[in-house]
Amino acid sequence: MSTWAPTVTLAPTVVVASAVTPVLTTTFSPTATSCLENRLTMLANRQYQIWMNEPLPVPGTTITDCYPSVYMNSFLNAAGGVTQPAFSPLVCPESYITQGPFTSNYIACCPSGYTLGLPTVNINKSRPAYGGTCYTPLPSGTAYKVIQYGADSVTATSTFAPSDTLAAAYAHPFEGFYFGVAVVASAGGSVTITNSEIAVMTGPSSSSTAAVATYTRGRKSCLQPGLPLGIDR
User: Fold this and answer.
1) Which of 47, 76, 85, 169 could make an SS bond with 21 (beta carbons 3.0 to 4.6 A apart)?
2) Alpha-carbon Rg for the chain in angstroms
3) What burial letters (b/e) apply to 177-191, b meaning 16+ CB within 10 Å?
C-alpha cells in the first residue's frame, strides 16, 4: 500500500445552498492512487465507525482528493442540512460499481467490494438510494490499517484486527440518473437493513497510539433515513 498524505482544506463556515443539478458525465479518476486502495479512517465522533475515504472526518476539515469537486459541493451542502438534487447525468467513478437494479435510468454507485444498504424509510420514491450507505464486512482476524481521528484532528495511524463478526466499513454512495437506460453491473443487487447489528469499536488506549482496537457488539441502524449522500449524523 502506498504512503498517503491527505489533501486537507478548511471547510467554509457558511455553506451556500445550491439548486444546480450536479453533473458527472465522465469516469472520475482520483489523482491519489491511495483512494483506490480501501483507505480507511476511524472516527471517534461517530462511535469509532470505520469509513472509506471519509471526506469530512471532523468538523471544519475536508479531504477532497478522492472525489470530484461537484460531489464535494453537494456533500458539504447536504452536511449543512440543504437537500441536494440527484446527479443527472451520473457516471460512476473509477473502481465504483453500479448498484441495483432500480427502475428507469436511476443508479447508485458504491466502491468495488461494497454493497449498497438502502434507507429503512424511502423518503423519495424517484431516488430509492437517497440516504443509503455502502458497506462491506471486515473479517475477524485480519489486520487493517486505519487513520484515527479524534474530536478535532488526526491522532494516529494504527492497525486493528476485528474480533467481532459484525465488523464493517462504510462508504458514501453516488446516486442519480444515467444517460438513457441504465445498465446495472452489480450482480449482488441492494439490500435493506432495519435495526441491523453493527460492530462499534472501542476507543484505542490513550497509552498507545498503535494499539490494536477491539470490537464490542452494539445495536444501531447503519442506515439512517433522510440523510442525503449517505451522511451519518
Assistant:
1) 85
2) 17
3) bbeeebebebeeebe
Q: What is the DSSP string of 160-223?
A: E---STT-EEEEPPEEEE-SSS-----SS--EE-SS-EEEEEPPPPTT-TTPPP-EEEEE--SS
Dist CA 124 CA 128 (whole Å): 6
Residue 31 domain-assigned (yes or no): yes
Which range of residues forms the domain containing residue 201? 18-230
Number of structural domains found in the chain: 1
Where b means 16+ CB within 10 Å and e means fewer, 72-88 reads: bbbbbbbbeeeebebbe
13 assigned to some structural domain: no
Task: Say if 134 falls within a structural domain.
Answer: yes
pTM above 0.85, yes or no: no
Q: How far apart are CA 71 and CA 67, in angstroms?
A: 6
Q: In sequence order, which residues have a C-beta less than 8 Å from that of residue 125 and are 6 or more positions away?
A: none
Q: What is the number of residues in the chain? A: 233
Closest C-alpha among 157, 112, 154 to residue 134? 112
Mean pLDDT across the stretch 181-196?
Answer: 43
> In DSSP terms, which residues pair with 192 in a beta bridge?
118
3-state DSSP assignment of residue 148: strand
Residue 27 is assigned to a structural domain of this protein: yes
Q: 105 near 181, Cβ under 8 Å?
A: yes
- The residue assigned the cell 478535532 is 152
